[in-house]
Amino acid sequence: MVTNLYDNPRKLYKYFPISKEYAIKVVDNGKYVGLMFAPNLSREDASSVGKVIDKWRAIALDGYIFYTSPQFFNDPFDTLLPKAPEIVPPLEERKYIIDVLRRAVTIKKDEVDRLLYSDDFDRALRIVLDSRHYDRSISEEIFKAYKMDRIPYKEEVAITCFSEVNNEQLMWAHYAGSYSGFCIEYDFSKSCDSAFLRGTAKVEYTNEKPCKDQFDDMGEYESKVMLTKSECWSYEKEWRSRKIAEYGLWKSKIYPIIDAHSCITAIYLGCNMPDEYQKVIIDHYRNTEVKVFQMKLCDDKFDMYFEQC
Fold this sequence. Notes:
Distance between the termini: 41 Å
Helix content: 25-40%
Shape: globular
Number of helices: 12
Number of domains: 2
Order of helices and strands: EEEHEHEHHHHHEHEHEEHEEHEEHEE
Strand order of the largest sheet: 1-7-13-14-15
């Protein structure tokens, strides 16, 4: 059973680096209409769309949370659906793909049979395409188009990750720029965004992948895949928020963003954060209810503690 924030409201943490990435404040007729993160745009092109601001400022000072595509995750197993034969296309889908191919190339009967009945459809399609003598780039484009249509769940879903802990050393090293970034504490019991709360769930750690045969609904199966990771990642104590991109991430490259400033209760600064960034964050939250803490390293053991600024 999925454990989500809607039924189990709690505090969660998220680690961030001080990066050179930026966001765009979009203005229409002089009125601010929203924030956009489009990493495919150059800074120059982005400035023609709206006001360019540092992404870390939008996160730490304005309280925005950015989603990203699972295609960029550092774990190759993460959100990966099994290969054929478990998810081979059904017969009707194969016939449709064959009809589409016939518009571009002539297909022999034995090739049609291969495409209709092979247990490994991806390999069968590759063999048919590679046997043609036309420009290989055309073959690659056809195969790429098929693959994009084949696994839309991963191309269109956006994820942002949280943790139950703020003192995990590996996470400070990997996700907070080698301790030069920060970690934000969110109290999601303050959130009124029911869609966000229902879509944010606890990750399960196991060395056995979810089996499609145990699910009657493909959507439930894909959800289970996105919320399951190998036991070696269990130290992260992760929760995930999932959204479906309105136009498909692979098409628009515009990533979802939510405003969570009202849920921020504390910010923890890494021990390697440069002084100028520390000052900006501390000054911003001075005389507010948000507490700011500075990380300190223990002298007698490999551990850390936090002092309020």
